[in-house]
Prior knowledge:
Elements: E1 4-7, E2 10-13, H1 14-25, H2 32-43, H3 54-66, E3 100-101, H4 104-107, E4 110-114, H5 121-131, E5 143-150, E6 153-162, H6 168-174, H7 178-184, E7 188-196, E8 200-201, H8 205-225, E9 231-236, H9 244-248, E10 252-256, E11 275-280, H10 285-290
Parallel strand pairs: 3-8, 7-9
Antiparallel strand pairs: 1-2, 4-5, 5-6, 6-7, 9-11, 10-11
Amino acid sequence: MAETWRYRGQEISGEQIVFLREFIRAHPTSSRWKLSRQLCEALDWKQANGALRDVVCRGLLLMLDRAGEIELPPVRRLIRGQRRTGRPRPEAVLMDTTPLTTTLKALGPIDTLPVRRTADEPLFNSLMEHYHYLGYEQPVGEHLKYLVLAGGRPIACLAWSSAPRHLASRDHYIGWSAEARRRNIRFIAYNTRFLILPWVEVPHLASHILGRMAARISKDWQALYGHPIYFLETFVDPERFRGTCYRAANWVLLGKTTGRGKQSNSYVPNRSIKEVLGYPLTRRFRQLLGETEECSHR
C-alpha cells in the first residue's frame, strides 16, 4: 500500500486511509453521494462560502476506490451526463449572426453579466461549444461565467475558474512559499475561455472587456464563494494568438509553461508551450498572496 497519496494538492496518509475505511464501514447504508456529504460534515470540509466540498470529496474517494485502497458501496443509479465523456454537448441556439462592425464608441453601453446558475447559462454554454475553438468544458471547482451584451445582443463570453496549483513562472513572479501557495491559491482566478463572437468586429473591444472584468470579478467571486480575488492569470498559445488584447489591458508576461501536463512522468514536453500572462488586482498582491495566516485575508 502506498504510504501517501495526493489529490488536488492534498496529501492523504496511510492513517487517513484507515480512517476512511472505518468511516465507510460505520455507514453501511449510505450511497456514494451521501457518504461524501457525511464525510465532509464530519471533517468540516467546506468552501469559504460554507458549502460542502462534496464534489472534491467524491473525486478523492473514487480515486482511492480505483486504487484498491478503500471499497465504496456499489453504484445505485447512473445519472445521465454524470461522467465527463457521457455528458450531452450544449445544443446550438438560434442566433442573430448579422455582422456587427463598428467602433467601440458607437457600440454603445456594454453589459457584463455573470450567468452561472441563471437562465442565461445554457446560452453561454452553447456559444462556447459552437464558436470557441476549444469548445465548451464544464468547470470543476470555483468558477464564474460571463455573457457580454451590447444593445441586448450577445457579443462575447468569458469563463474564469480556480487557478492551476503549480505554475513555475507565476509562482516565481509572486515569490510565495509552498505553504503560502497552498493556502492562498484560491485568491487567483484563471481565465480559461475568452470568446468574441465571430461576427463581431469592434476594435479594442477585447481589451475593454478585460478592463471591465478586472473592475468587478473580485466582488462577484466574494459574493458567490466568500473570498476576494487578488490576481488574474491566463495562458496564450503563441502558435495561434499574440495575446494583444491582454497586453493592451496591461496584463504582463510572466513566462512560459513547460509543455508538460500534470500527468507527465518525464521532462519531455507533451503539449504546446503556452505564454503565461498575469494581472494584479491590487498593488499589495504579493503581500496578500504571500501571507500564511488565515486571519490575514479579511
